[in-house]
Write the structure tokens for this entry.
Amino acid sequence: MAGHVALVAAALTLLAPIEASAQSDSTQACWIRGSPERVAARPSILDSVSVQLGTSTVKVCYGRPRKNDRQIMGGLVPFGTPWRMGANEATVIHMPSGGSIAGVPVQAGSYSLYAIPAEKEWQIVVNSVTQRWGIPISAAVREKDVGTGAVRTETTTSSEDQMRMSFEKRGDKSADLILQWDLTRVRIPVTLK
């Protein structure tokens, strides 16, 4: 247990809260709520993934829930309802320059992401409020939406017990942010100018 706490404490040092404009693109960190001890006790770990596009780094911070023998899509994650795309804090993407997320034009800065899943297609919503708990996605949260883009779902052959995100480069300044959980995968295009 002591090793687990030390590992989480080291990770939290890297994921410490940030001032939105005080950090360069390569040092953006994740905003977390709560003490290191409380964060370490969460069943869904806090994680991040990044990709180098051009000379800049795009980073996503998110919580990684587990399946735990539950029905995920259409069950725990209901179709037609806003979902935070993770657990705990809102899922946040740091864009070092202008570009687009799921086809939604954005300026340099940080944005929260949430989805409105359906069986064959998800609406990916880009929102300007980042330092918040992931739920509820209320009318007040939705007032800060920047835009929405559609992405197709893919069905995988092997189940992913713990939700994970990764980047797959498509070009020098473009990549897909891939979310995979249970038997579902979505690819969210991210580009920088």
In short: Residues 46-192 form one domain. Helices lie at 2-14, 36-40, 139-142.
